[in-house]
Design goal:
heterodimer, A: mainly alpha, two-stranded antiparallel sheet, about 65% helix, B: mainly alpha, 17 helices, about 75% helix
């Protein structure tokens, strides 16, 4: 007879009970853990005489930073201003780093499929050397190398266009007063070229025409664009009217350059491996089919293989970009005033350790979130469209 | 009428696969005009680079900074009288490595076969050449040279002994993890002192010793922590899943240096006022917290690659959830992500350099303090190249080891 045997399972052996009880215990544990930490924190802060408020951000930050995108005056401006300058410096390194590292990484990745033996080996050597040494060491190495550049008086002068000295690297920079006008003209030319290209493809496909006149017009727009860039922008090479001074042009400090080079080459090696893996994931038949259509190897890569490889490449590429942004905090080792470096000085001056670290963490989290979001949008756009 | 073809067939490969140096050059370096251009450019750049480097290395560089500070590079400010303890540590590690090597290879005839003997001879010759170079270049004492040589011999001997013993008592393998576990405490005891030994403050630890110590402790601690986090993230209990998720995403979203900074500067704020953990310990906490979050994501990838059928089959056999995890799912999951995990370990090893920024004198930190010495000012390139080679050798060995492990595991699977 079942009726008497069918007792309730004792509570302590009931799986459902433990699932809920376990979670409650964990929650209580976590709350207790943070409660203890919090109470310790409050007590310690009281003993140290530091309150928890963000008022210090309005105080005068009386320390100078070596470079800033926005105007910053140490004797007038506040901590919030200097933190903003640091953030902009971080963004500057992040954006230029992401662009350059993509170029380096894709180039080194594709070079491993070149039919030139030397180029293949060179890219393997680059990857193996860079990936197996610490980034911080590489940064310090670049910085030490740049520090050995001669002084401004005895600067290296590359064809009168680029100056290399202890004070930085001076490059030509557009200085035309109507620069925005010319940029607008360039955008218009680009749009026109895009529509011309589409029109040309359309009439070649649909009407079987040669597309020759459109091609000539296309070339004309390209030439216009080149003319605008060369003459309209009013490039100004750095000038040195008297020894010891360098005027005009774009100055990249050696701190910025060594950080940028270190980050770009380091991340580039990882991206190269990602690109290689992505290209190898494209079936061999795709190469063979494209070759049998008569495409040259460069075109096979560009039109057939690479677009397919992108689907495999983009997700890990995203995490490499995030790594680059996070690693830019190593700027402190080469004295580049990025967000972390500036925040570190702020903390040392004010002692507001909790607030400062909160600001840094939230900022980096937000930056990473934005990059992830953009990369995910890009990822959706290259994914296989299945209907 | 049949005719017999008495002519020997042409057995040479078809023209396309015939290679001589000239066709090889033609095919691999000068196949098209732009390939020739690339080749020539690379040659020119390389020639310039090597010429410049060799002139610098032989005429301008002052390499004396390396031998003069060799002990600093390797063990930091560890007291000179206590160096025997470090040699003992090395001996313990070599003993266990040799034993492990011997036991694991007990059934394969490979150990001490002709091939591995040739391999050993070659390795031995390489080591001898390197030692020879050290003898020529570096003024280390004859005792140390002999000790180094003795260590190599010791490794081979323990491997042989391990193989012989393991053949008779196959259960030895099961005791190896325990032996390694115990060895950690012996090493720790030798490094810090206590009991009958003199105390050595952690402030005296430095150089490669501290780097390796931090890396090993970080790896050993972060692996179980990372596995737990990964399991937590995959859990069906919402609270645990979200807590683990929150932890992983926050840690992965901020730079390591902020976490180390938190460990160094903020940890004391969170602890009772009379409890100030050691600086090395604080750094380990930061490193482990950081590394565990990344490992958790790697392990999660492995967990996701295990088909549901595996755990269902285990359940059908009557295994409960913990046993299913430990015996069925985890081993397979971890095996499938070994390359990613080793990659993370290499990253962790490289990340120990960041401790130099928060004030620990590991290999990079000690280099910076040597460079701050007025006698060696400006010797950046020499010092950074030297420690760069050390880091490179260790990381490269780790990555090659992981590739090899991966290959072996793949063979087993097929």
């Amino acid at each position: 007879m079942m009726t008497d045997q069918e007792q309730k399972i004792p509570l302590w052996r009931d799986d459902r009970f433990w699932r809920i009880a376990g979670q409650v215990i964990v929650v209580i544990g976590v709350i207790a853990f943070f409660g203890i930490l919090g109470s310790n924190l409050v007590r310690n802060l009281q003993q140290a005489g530091i309150g928890f408020s963000f008022e210090f951000l309005g105080n005068n930050a009386s320390f100078a930073i070596s470079e800033s995108v926005i105007p910053y005056n140490p004797s007038l401006d506040s901590y919030s201003r200097v933190l903003m300058a640091g953030l902009l410096n971080t963004l500057r390194i992040a954006i230029s780093g992401i662009i350059l590292t993509t170029i380096v990484g894709i180039f080194a990745g594709i070079a491993q499929f070149s039919d030139n033996w030397l180029l293949r080996k060179l890219s393997v050597i680059y990857i193996e050397i860079v990936r197996n040494t610490p980034l911080l060491l590489q940064l310090l190495f670049w910085y030490a190398m740049f520090l050995q550049l001669p002084s401004v008086e005895e600067k290296f002068d590359l064809a009168g266009i680029i100056f290399l000295s202890k004070r930085g690297i001076n490059l030509p920079f557009p200085a035309s007063p109507q620069i925005w006008l010319w940029l607008a003209a360039l955008v218009v030319t680009a749009i026109a070229a895009f529509f011309l290209w589409q029109w040309r493809t359309k009439i070649i496909v649909e009407q079987g025409q040669s597309g020759q006149p459109q091609l000539i017009t296309l070339w004309l727009t390209v030439i216009t664009a080149i003319l605008i860039i060369v003459f309209g922008f009013g490039w100004q090479a750095p000038q040195s009217p008297e020894p010891g001074t360098i005027e005009t042009g774009l100055r990249l400090s050696i701190e910025f350059t060594s950080l940028l080079m270190g980050l770009v080459f380091y991340t580039g090696a990882f991206i190269a491996e990602i690109v290689r893996a992505g290209i190898q994931s494209v079936p061999k038949g795709q190469w063979e089919a494209a070759r049998s259509l008569g495409l040259k190897s460069g075109l096979v890569m560009r039109l057939v293989v690479f677009p397919q490889a992108l689907r495999v490449i983009i997700p890990p590429l995203n995490s490499q970009y995030l790594n680059l942004v996070k690693n830019s905090s190593l700027a402190i080792a080469v004295a580049y005033p990025d967000l972390y470096n500036v925040a570190n000085t702020t903390f040392n001056q004010t002692g507001r350790v909790i607030q400062v670290i909160l600001i840094i963490m939230i900022t980096y989290l937000l930056l990473n979130l934005i990059i992830s979001l953009l990369m995910n949008l890009l990822n959706i756009s290259v994914q296989l469209k299945e209907r | 009428m049949t005719t017999v073809n008495t002519q020997k067939p042409d057995l040479s490969p078809p023209p396309a696969t015939q290679t001589n140096p000239l066709t090889w050059l033609q095919k691999n370096l000068f196949s098209t005009w732009y390939n020739s251009l690339i080749t020539l450019t690379i040659f020119a750049v390389f020639f310039q680079f090597f010429k410049g480097f060799l002139t610098w290395a032989t005429t301008q560089a002052k390499w004396t900074v390396i031998p003069a500070n060799l002990s600093l590079f390797f063990v930091g400010r560890f007291p000179k009288d206590e160096y025997w303890r470090l040699w003992l540590i090395l001996a313990v590690i070599i003993f266990l490595s040799g034993l492990t090597w011997g036991t694991l290879a007990r059934n394969s005839p490979k150990l001490f076969s002709i091939n591995s003997l040739i391999g050993l001879t070659v390795t031995g010759l390489v080591i001898l050449t390197i030692t020879g170079l050290i003898v020529v270049l570096l003024p280390i004492s004859i005792t140390y040279r002999l000790l180094l040589l003795a260590m190599v011999v010791f490794l081979v001997v323990t491997a042989w002994v391990g193989k012989q013993v393991a053949k008779k008592t196959p259960n030895l393998v099961n005791w190896l993890p325990l032996a390694w576990f115990l060895s950690f405490f012996i090493v720790l005891w030798l490094m810090t002192g206590g009991l009958i030994l003199d105390n050595v403050s952690t402030n005296d630890w430095g150089g490669l010793l501290l780097t390796v110590y931090m890396a090993v402790v970080g790896i050993v601690l972060s692996l179980p922590f990372g596995i737990l986090l990964a399991l937590g993230r995959q859990s069906t209990l919402p609270v645990i899943c979200w807590l683990c998720r929150l932890y992983i995403e926050i840690i992965r979203g901020v730079p390591l240096i902020t976490i180390l900074f938190m460990g160094q500067v903020m940890l004391p704020f969170f602890l009772p006022a009379d409890w100030r953990p050691d600086r090395v310990l604080r750094a380990i906490v930061g490193l482990t917290m950081f590394s565990a979050a990344y490992l958790a994501e790697n392990v999660r990838g492995g967990l996701q690659s295990i088909p549901r059928g595996q755990s269902e089959a285990a359940k059908a056999l009557g295994l409960n959830t913990p046993l299913t995890l430990i015996l069925i799912v985890l081993p397979q999951a971890i095996k499938s992500v070994i390359p990613a995990i080793v990659g993370q370990f290499i990253g962790l090893f490289q990340d120990t350099t960041l401790l130099a920024i928060v004030g620990l004198v590991e290999l990079l930190g000690i280099s910076r303090s040597i460079l701050a010495n007025p006698r060696y000012i400006g010797r950046y390139a020499e010092v950074y190249l030297f420690i760069g080679v050390i880091y490179w050798l260790i990381c490269f060995a780790m990555s090659q080891g992981s590739k090899r492990l991966e290959r072996q595991l793949n063979i087993e699977r097929n």
